[in-house]
Amino acid sequence: MIFANPAKLSKRGVLGMNMRNLDFVLAYNPRHLFPQVDNKLITKRLAEKAGIPVPKLYETIQFQHQIQLLPKLLENYEQFVVKPSKGSGGKGILVVLGKQSGHFIKTNGSMVSQKDLNRHVSNIVSGLYSLGGHIDTAMIEYYVNFSPIFKDISYQGVPDIRVLVFQGYPTMAMLRLPTRTSDGKANLHQGAVGVGIDIQRGTTLRGVYRNNPIENHPDTGKSFKDIPIPGWHDLLILASRCYEITGLGYMGIDIVLDSNHGPMILEMNARPGLAIQVANNSGLVPRLRKIEKMASKKLTIEQRVSFAEKNFSANFLK
Questions:
Q1: Contact call for residues 139 and 84 (beta carbons, < 8 A)
Q2: CA-to-CA distance for 188 and 208, rounded, in angstroms?
Q3: pLDDT confidence band for 315 (50 / 70 / 90)
Q4: CATH assignment of 6-40+146-311, given 2.60.40.10, 3.30.470.20, 3.40.50.2000, 3.40.50.1000?
Q5: What is the mean pLDDT of the chain?
Q6: CATH code 3.30.470.20 region(s) in the chain
Q7: How far apart are CA 26 and CA 252, in angstroms?
Q8: Which neighbouring-strand residues pair with 99?
Q9: Exposure of 148 by Cβ count < 10 A (0-12 exposed, 13-18 middle, 19+ buried)?
Q10: Cα–Cα nearest to 252, from 270, 234, 237
Q11: CATH (one of 3.30.1490, 3.90.1570, 2.40.128, 2.40.30) for 57-141
Q12: Entry pTM
């Protein structure tokens, strides 16, 4: 599927930005519920309350004067992630893989001094990376030890799985793989690779990199076709549960596979991007409209997932 002129896009059922915003984000996401996913700290607490696994929160920094406490707060942690609670697009995330001679080691092997780390946290708290530039909270949390199944198709960093959930139905999914360009972050806007996943089989398809379809990882050269995602059905159940705990009808759920703790919810997004369609070589509109016709049926989480597995295979409306 090559995204071309508007007529061809419409014929292929491709969801555009305007339709996404008007027909789905605004129509199915009550505005007063947005903070539940726009604030990662709130999201984490909601998930924990519902018994949904998330990376453990080590510390939070809410005020500038707390930054002087960082050396003491971090002394027991060799690996950790620092992120803004209200950030977006992967901005402001700093991953530390170890310590050496009083410095912190990033995913790319470069070193960060304590002074640099303090400055980074200060920028987070001041709102440099937050939506709208508002005062923010820096979160320091567990570094995910990702499943070795992805080691040959990921460059440093932690891969994650984005599941688009509409009205509680898993609708489309992709694996997001860090690259050298993305500095170890699984964010497409920063240069990560998105790889489509067959909802029915739980196996990878082809990928998209910088809005262009590709078959192999740009750094490792390894093919990412037909890789089975372990525990796929349970992973879809996990994503579908997020509908009940947030009340948001149109979301992107980001899940990581930790080698020690299994699948964990990393983030939720009320305005998920559209490149997932390129990765899956399929438009979202037919799937979304099919789900809308199910509105009168009150299905359980298990039934919604089974519906998606049955109806949204890689061959759906190709």
A1: yes
A2: 9
A3: low
A4: 3.30.470.20
A5: 91
A6: 6-40+146-311
A7: 15
A8: 104
A9: exposed
A10: 270
A11: 3.30.1490
A12: 0.91
